[in-house]
Amino acid sequence: MDEVDKIIDDIRALRVQGARNVALAALRAVRIVADRSNDDLLRDNVKSVVIRLAKTRPTEPAMRDALTYVLRHLSSKEELLRAIDRYEDELRESETKIAEYGAHRIPDGGTIITHCHSTTAINVLRRAKELGKEFRVIVTETRPLYQGKLTAKDLLAAGIPVTYVVDSAAYLFMKDADLYITGSDAITSDGYVVNKIGTALMAAAAERFNVPYYVAASTLKYDPVTAAGYPELIEERDPSEVIDPSELPGAEIRNPAFDVTPPELVDGIISEIGIYSPQIFPAMVAQTKGVSDLEEVIALFRLAKERGK
Ligand code: RUB
């Protein structure tokens, strides 16, 4: 299989997962296409791969941000490749800052609980460990695709003790947690946090036991199309990820990939511009990075909506 087709297939099949990793993989595909194109063909070739990538996973504003950025830097191959380098550098710098700010919030001697696999949240925990903090992390397995296993492996490799539990044990374990942390795929203009299915249920449990809930997410996760009135699309995946449908003839089987946590259940978003409540986060993004050109991002969002077509 061609390298670019493979990246696209890996993103769609979740062999590459986590919003940040998805955005980086998309840039890798664009880089390969740019490398293979001369300046005459650059525009057409890159635009066509951008469209294919945008359709792979609709709930990914971080990838859309990267792709919109690509479309803005198409005057020459040299300019595009330099721009991609710059974007990747900024992403790395933002991860380091988020890890540092977030690590200060991790209670020494405490118990942390997390859900799914977020590189950003894991970096926060890794950095806290580097700073000498001791803590245990409760990791939920994250049905149906068990991203919790990846999280558990990453944390164990960093020397952080892990307790691995089924998703439905989250309420029980939340009682003894000192902090709940996840990543995010998208943050809307009114401060709602979109993340892996189950995140909101755990946020409700966290509120019940007064456990603070923090979301580790770069400003790339802010989705500007929501400011133009578009709802964040929730990706619905193949039911066969949940169960073989032939085992339950006649039953409707649903497999939404994400849920939406309301801002009042989130204590703070840990981003590279600082830790802010979700209610003011969008204003802080606009103040720091400027207001996005909505027409540009809406065009790509429309394409993403046509997933699979
Ligand atoms: C992964 C998921 C992660 C966010 C943030 O879902 O919900 O919490 O993507 O990840 P999926 P990161 O497995 O469906 O991609 O912090 O790495 O961007």
Keywords:
309 residues, alpha/beta, Four Helix Bundle (Hemerythrin (Met), subunit A), Rossmann fold, 2 domains, 3-stranded antiparallel beta sheet, 11 helices, 12% strand, binds ribulose-1,5-diphosphate
Protein architecture, described:
There is one protein chain. The chain is built from eleven helices and ten strands. The protein is an alpha/beta fold and 309 residues long. The protein folds into two domains: 2-96 and 292-307, Four Helix Bundle (Hemerythrin (Met), subunit A), CATH 1.20.120.420; 99-289, Translation initiation factor eif-2b, domain 2 (Rossmann fold), CATH 3.40.50. The longest helix is centred in the first third of the chain and has 27 residues, at 77-103. The radius of gyration is 19 Å and the shape is globular. The chain starts with a helix and ends with a helix. The structure holds ribulose-1,5-diphosphate (RUB).
Averaged pLDDT = 94
Low-pLDDT residue spans: none
In what range is the share of β-strand residues? Answer: 5-15%
- Named at the architecture level, the CATH assignment of the largest domain is 3-Layer(aba) Sandwich
CATH homologous superfamily classification of the largest domain: Translation initiation factor eif-2b, domain 2
> How many alpha or pi helices?
11
Globally, the shape reads globular
Domains counted in the coordinates: how many?
A: 2
Radius of gyration: 19 Å
What are the secondary-structure elements, in order, as H or E? HHHHHEHEHEHEEEHEEEEHH
State the name of the first-level CATH class of the largest domain.
Alpha Beta
CATH topology of the largest domain: Rossmann fold
